[in-house]
Request: fold
Amino acid sequence: MLQVRHVTRMFGHKAAVDNISFTIDRPAFVGIIGRSGAGKSTFLRMMNRLTDATAGEIVFEGRNVLPLTGAEMRAWQSQCAMIFQQFNLVPRMDVASNVLHGILNRRSTLSTVFNLWNKSDIARALSILDRLGIAEQAAKRTEALSGGQQQRVAIARALMQDPKVILADEPIASLDPMNAQIVMDSLRRIHEEDGRMVIANLHTLDTARRYCDRVIGMRDGRIVFDGTPEQLTTGAARDIYGADDSFSESATSTSLDHLPADATYATAMLGA
Reply:
């Protein structure tokens, strides 16, 4: 279904994403984990065509999406919806209108300028909001909602596109634990009920283990782990997060201090 072949993104002489390849053969829930700067966000942005690749191919259902331009690229972006860490909503606009903006590229210029929506689109937007448990917020300004509610509005906007793939770039990084769970539960339910592929960049191993069918670990732009959540051992955490080689399976809390911040939390979640 999805083939990533030798994809690279250079910024000057530095490879943000360095010759990565993997295949997803069905609509899975895939987590990409790694430290900040590992290349996770850059890869998602290349897949959604917000950032150009330097080399390689991303082939979805037999078509390489990287060379697409114009209307073909916009059509791909409709099929491949993006959810951002900071929501990317219009704060002063009401919730329902933010959701309806998911189909802006399918509307005429006139209807867009005058903010005209047909009844079926409005009904669908409200139905999606109801599914996510926030239909009662439809008439409120988005800026009046909590962070977790705003992220669910962003998910609703993505669903309004009726995408085949949902890309979630650190969707819970700015949320408290309760709202983080609600958002991740929502994404998992969408995957299971709709059969949509979800690829989510995540910081913590416990989240990846709980929600993902498959986990890809990136470090310095390269894939250093690709397996099931059950295979996310302490050794895998060391490879992904750059733990000190002296770190052992029987590490105490003292030796955790030698790990980078992301790795300390991640390894602790594995019970090291």
